[in-house]
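Notes to self after the call with IL:
- keep both proteins in one doc
- input above output, always
- annotate only the second one for now

Protein 1:
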Amino acid sequence: MAYIIRAMKQLLSRSRLLGVALGAISTAAVLVQAQAPVPKHRIAIFGSSVANGTGDELNKEGYTGRLRDMLAPRGWQVFNQSRGGDNTKTMAPRWAPDGEPRANTKYLMTANPDYVMFGLSLGNEGIKNGTTTAEKDAIYAQFESGMREFVAKARANHIVPIVTLCYTRNDFTELEYGYTRRMNLLISSTWDVPSANFLGAVDDGTGKWAKGFWWDSLHPNASGHDELTATIVPTLFDALDRGTPMPKKSTAAGFVRITNGFTPIEFEPADLMHPFALAFDVRGESPTDVAVVSGVMLDASTQIKHIERGRGGAVDLEETTLAASNQPALARVSIVGGAWTYTSANGHDRVQSTVQADGQWHHIVLSHYTARGETLFFVDGQLAGRTAERFQPKKFVLGGPGAGDMATPTRRLDVKELMIYRSALNADEAAALAKGALLQASLEVYSPLNDASFKSGQPVINLAQATTFATVGDGVMAHMDR
C-alpha cells in the first residue's frame, strides 16, 4: 500500500512539472508571436501640391490617391503627407515635429512609414526665378543637395526612399526645360534610389503640360494625375519588400540568337500601361519584324468642364480623357529596304531611319507618349522620326513578328539589353541609353538576355525592381558569347 502511495505522489509531481514546462513553452510561443515583425507596408507620399492632389477635380487626392487604390489590394497603405507650395527648404521642417506638433501640419514621421516617396520639383524650387545662369545653377544645386539629404535621412531612419522625377510647368522656357531634363537624367542614371519618370507622362515636348492634361499652369487635372500614376511600376514596392536591389548594367558577356521565331521573347503587362518605352540592342540584315507592340488604339475625348476653384473663382477647364477603343493596335519595328523602320500602330504611317541594318549592333528606342499622342523612334541615340498616335500596349514581342496570320518567322536576329519602361523617354534619355547608361526610373523589365539557356514558357532574367518578367516563347533560341 505504501508503495502505491509513493508511486502516485511521484506521478503527481511529474505531472505538475510537465504542466509548468508546457505552460512555459506556451508562454514563450505567445511572446515570439507578439514579437514577430509586422509587415512593412506603410508608404508616405511626402511632397508639394501635385503630390497633395491639387488639380484633381475628382477629389481623389491626385496620384497619391490613385496609388493608394492601386496598391490597397496588394496589402499596402498609402498616406498623404504633402503640402502645397513646398520645396526642399520648406519641406525639411515637416520631417518630424520639434516638440509640440504644429496644428494642421502633416509631418512625415508621424505617419510611421516604412517607405517614403518624395514628390518635389524644380518648379517650386524656383528654377524659373533665376535671372542668370549662375542663379539657375545655384537653384539646381540646392534642389539636388536637398533631395540627397532627404534620401540619406530616410535611410538613417530605416525608411526606404523613392523619388519622383521633376515634371512640367506651363511657364517653363527651353532653358528651364533643359534643367529639368538634366536633373531627371542625373537621378535616373546615377542615384542609387528608385524613381518614377513623371516627365515621361505629361511632357508636351517643350517642358509644358500636354494639352488637355492640366488644371492650371502648375498642376495637372484628373487626367494628368492618371498619367502620372501610370509611370509608377505597380510591383515596385513588392520588389523592394523582397529586397530586390537597384538594377545595374550587366557586365556579363552574351546575347540571344533567334532563328525561325514568331514570338521569341514576350512581355504582357499585368496592370494597365499608358506611356511606355521599349529599348533593345539588335543585330541583323534580312528583312524581318524585329519587335512588335500590340494592344488597342485609344480614343481621346476633349471637353470643357466648368470648375469652381473657391477663392480663385470659376473657370472653364479643358480636359482630355482617354478610353480604349475596339480598334486593335500593332506597332512594328522592322528591317525594311535595308534600314531600321517603325510602322505606326494603325499601320498607316512609316518612319524609316537612314541607319542601315548592316549586321552590326544597333540600339533601338520606341517611346510613346499617350497624353500628347506621339511616338518617337530613335536609332543609335538619334531621333529617326515621330508619328501622331495614341494606343495602349498590352503585349511586347522581341525578336519576331508576333502571331499574326500573315507573319513570317524571323530568319536570324541577335538581341540583347531589353528594357521596358512605364514612361516615355526623351531625346536625352534615348541618347544616354545608346551610350550604355542604365536608366532606372519607371523601369519594369531589364533583361540583358544573356541567360545560360532559353526554354519555352520560362522567364528570362529581370534585373529591374519589379516582380514581373518577360518569358520565352517560340523559335530556336541560343545563348551566344560573340
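Protein 2 (the one to annotate):
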Amino acid sequence: MTDILALLQPIAPLISKTTLRQLSRVIFGMLAMTGRVTMLGISRWAGKGGSYRTIQRLYNTPLPWSEIFCNLFRALLFQSGDKYILAGDEVVVSKAGDETFGKDCIFSSLAQRPIPGLAFFAFSLINVRLRRSSPIKMEQIVRSEEEKAACKAKAHARKTKKKPDEKRKPGRPKGSKNKDKQQVELNPELKRIQAMLQAMLKLLITFLSLKYVVLDGHFGNYPSAWMVMQNNLHLVSKLRQDAGLYLPYAGAKPRRGPTPKYGEKIDYDHLPAAYLVQSSIEDGIRTDIYQAKLWNKEFPIPLNVVIIHKTILKTQAAAHVVLFSTDL
C-alpha cells in the first residue's frame, strides 16, 4: 500500500488527501482481485478503508482525469530522448442493464455485430523505441439523435445506390456546382475528436513535442486529415484497398488549359518496380513494400503512400494494404 501511495504522489496536487487515499484502496483491490471488476468486488478485496460506501463516494467524485493521466505519464513513463506518436481509436465495452448513462446498441469489431454497450474514444502515446502504449485521454461517446439519424440516412443511401449496370446519363448532372475541397465542414464525430485533441495538446505541449496522429481506416479521408492538420500535426492512416491512386502527371504541358496533376492510375496487381523499397521472404510469403508520392481524388493534397503487398509463393494468392501519411 505504501508503494501505491508513493506512485500516486505526482497527482497529489490535483486531488484531495481523502480522494488520494480512496484511490489507493481501489487500486489495491483491482490488483488483488480476479474476475470481472465491479464496485462490490473491489470492496471485498480492498481491505480496511475500502468499504462499498467508500468505493461509491470515489466513483461519484468528479476528477480531472486528463491532468491525472498526464502527470502520471510525465513522472513515471516519459523518456525525454525517445520519439512519441499519438494514436486514437474507439473502444466498445459490452454492458447489461438499462440504467447506465450512454448505453446504446453499438457495432463491435471484435463481435462483428452490434451489441448493447458503451463506446469510448481513447488517445494513447506510443513510445516508438519501446513499442509501448500509454493511455493519456479517454472520453465516453454519447451520440445525439441527429447523429444517429445521419448515420441511418447514410446507410440507407448506400443500400439504395444505383447498381453498376445502371448507367447514368452522360455529362455533368444538372444543377451540380464545383466544390472547394479545401473548405471542410466537420461532422459531429470529428468535432468531438478535435476538441479532445486540442485539450490534450495543451497539457502535453509543456514537455512533449508531437508530429504524428495515427487513426484507423475509418478516418482515412480528407476531413479527418484536415482536422488533424489544423492542429499542426500529420495524419497516418489507412485507405481502402481499392482506393484510386494516381502518379503525378509527368507528360508535356498542354498547349491550352492547366497542367494536369493526375498521371497514370496505380494498378495494384502490377505495381511499378521503381517504387519498390523493400522485399523479403518468410514462411513462404513474399512481402513487397512500395512507397511513392501519389494523388487521390478525394484529397486536394498529395499523399505519402505505402503499399504493403504480400504473395503466397506456393499458390500465388496475393493481398495488399494501403497506408498513407500527409507528411511528404
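Annotation: The longest helix spans residues 188-204. The mean pLDDT is 90.
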